[in-house]
């Protein structure tokens, strides 16, 4: 920490302090001067307190205008709106960078670092998770940056990913617990002030990097991928049933770092530079793109 000392109670301190005087910074409120002759330099304040100088805090505040930087240690941490605005997190804040004006808006209701986010297909509801012992999932309005709902005390040690369904009425979240709990949330109205927990399951000890909806009327509804992990899930009322991916001698089990739905297929990027294309839960095509992770 660098500090500049302003001589409020020392007369001509720059010219009269002996060379052996040193400054040792213990904190912003504890500063000690080591000098045998420092006592002779102390003088009375030039403005005595008796004339009514106020010692109250000034009635002023700082207004946040712009944030530089972002959280980049998590995957799938950027979203874009239909008009091209970019949404991304930086520490506790979620930033909306408006394309037209280059102005930033801020959602500031998190109390820990934001670890994941997802914009609902309806275009105005955002879900953000955080990295904390008792993490919150905040659901908020992108247009007003106001909270719609707060979901807490269901996951532990953080949220690794959140994802909305195509109709914006379902949300899946994955926690950072040892066995990685996955929870399916529902909002009958789609406004998310009436949410409830529909299903909960333990995914296993492998780290999960993404969870995506395939559709509500498809053979499998949700897919998860991560460290040596690829599973396809079927929603059955309050239950979630998993099926392992079928590689069919076209590829092999490896780290799945990201994934998205493309037309009738689901596409994943791997840790060894391949792109895998899936139909239902079967691997149908493998493309070598790079030697580095995708």
Head-to-tail CA distance between termini:
39 Å
User: What's the helix-strand series?
Assistant: HEEEEEEEEEEEEEEEEEEEEEE
The helical percent reads: under 10%
Rounded to an integer in angstroms, the radius of gyration calculated over CA atoms is 27 Å
Q: Can you summarize the main beta sheet?
A: 4 strands, antiparallel
**Overall number of strands:** 22
* Averaged pLDDT: 86
Give the helix tally.
1
**Percentage of residues in DSSP E strands:** 35-45%
Instruction: Give the overall form.
Output: elongated
Low-confidence blocks of residues: 1-35
Q: What is the spatial order of strands in the main beta sheet?
A: 3-4-5-6
**By helix and strand content, what is the structural category?**
mainly beta
């Amino acid at each position: 920490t660098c500090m500049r000392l302003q001589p409020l109670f020392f007369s001509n301190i720059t010219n009269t302090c002996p060379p052996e005087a040193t400054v040792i910074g213990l904190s912003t409120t504890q500063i000690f001067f080591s000098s045998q002759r420092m006592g002779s330099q102390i003088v009375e304040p030039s403005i005595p307190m008796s004339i009514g100088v106020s010692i109250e805090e000034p009635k002023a505040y700082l207004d946040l205008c712009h944030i530089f930087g972002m959280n980049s240690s998590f995957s799938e941490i950027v979203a874009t709106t239909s008009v091209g605005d970019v949404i991304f997190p930086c520490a506790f804040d979620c930033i909306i960078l408006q394309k037209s004006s280059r102005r930033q808006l801020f959602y500031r209701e998190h109390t820990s670092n934001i670890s994941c986010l997802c914009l609902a297909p309806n275009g105005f509801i955002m879900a953000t998770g955080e990295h904390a012992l008792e993490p919150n999932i905040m659901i908020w309005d992108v247009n007003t940056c106001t909270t719609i709902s707060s979901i807490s005390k269901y996951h532990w040690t953080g949220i690794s990913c959140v994802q909305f369904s195509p109709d914006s009425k379902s949300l899946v979240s994955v926690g950072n617990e040892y066995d990685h709990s996955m929870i399916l949330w529902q909002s009958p109205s789609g406004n998310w002030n009436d949410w409830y927990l529909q299903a909960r399951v333990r995914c296993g000890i492998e780290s999960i990097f993404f969870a995506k909806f395939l559709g509500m009327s498809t053979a499998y509804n949700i897919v998860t991928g991560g460290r040596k992990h690829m599973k396809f899930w079927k929603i059955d009322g309050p239950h979630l049933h998993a099926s392992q991916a079928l590689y069919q001698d076209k590829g092999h089990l490896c780290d799945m770092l990201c994934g998205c739905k493309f037309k009738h297929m689901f596409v994943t990027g791997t840790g060894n530079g391949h792109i895998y294309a899936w139909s239902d839960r079967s691997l149908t095509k493998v493309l070598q793109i790079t030697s580095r992770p995708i």
